[in-house]
Write a structure and sequence with these properties.
The chain contains 15 helices and 2 strands. By secondary structure, the protein is mainly α. It has a two-stranded antiparallel ribbon.
Length: about 325
Amino acid sequence: MKIVAQIKEPVYQEMELFESKFRDSMTSKVALLNRITHYIVNRKGKQMRPMFVFLTAKLLNNGEVNERTYRGASVIELIHTATLVHDDVVDESNKRRGFFSINALWKNKIAVLVGDYLLSKGLLLSIDNGDFDLLKIISVAVREMSEGELLQIEKARRLDITEDVYYDIIRQKTATLIAACCSLGACSVKPDSPDVETFRKFGELCGMAFQIKDDLFDYGGEKIGKPTGIDIKEQKMTLPLIYALNNCSKKEKSWVINSIKNHNKDKKRVKEVIAFVKDKGGLDYSVTKMLQYRDEALKLLSTYPESDYKSALELMVNYVVERKK
């Protein structure tokens, strides 16, 4: 059995019911909107986020979930989908998971409006049901994600990111959403309990490991589906590169900065930068950091009693760092 299917198994029924509830949460009286949301729903990814919500809730609530859990999973997926639709507009990206993006098919204006619609649907789902505690969790996540993106853009212009600033960026950009999934799952069944914060932290640690793994893919350690050197071409400062720049001579540093600023479209030069980062131990250092985050996440889980849900979450944490794409 594939790892994702194994992770999904203890929440398989919940995920099936969630699919229909999520579909219903998107409906509109506008035919064009329904056509677009139908397109979105039929091109979903692995759906790791709702899985985090359901696994956390079931782990804390003797294998039971409630309507709040379903709403929490729907809210996170609506808002996450809204941010992806907007991201594709910002990045001028024509593809998403191998399919045409909304902006490629329906143009930017419609994509921005669809993103706004999904965001408002998510907020109203919480408000209409009085889930203000869940709404606060997701609203904080949206704020942090926006700040993280803007912090990255600000720093990319100057290429002066320290390791600490890099962690701040990925904590806000990526980890905050996974943290929200886990704290939503906990809050849906055990509001006001210390578990809500424990699982927020657990999700954050998973997210940090996830993003470092993503950054490593840019250096093509394995045969993966995405081309290497994309981050360098986009002048994104990632952990392997930051480490290499902190551990080289002044002359080497100015060569790398110049390469990224002025020769980032030159394939040969990008390959040389990748080789330089590997040579300086940037990849090994990043792997060590990623595994530290994984171990911290597993340590938080270890205090809870054994169950299928705990095992699935442990599998999820390991999958995050071992995945091939």
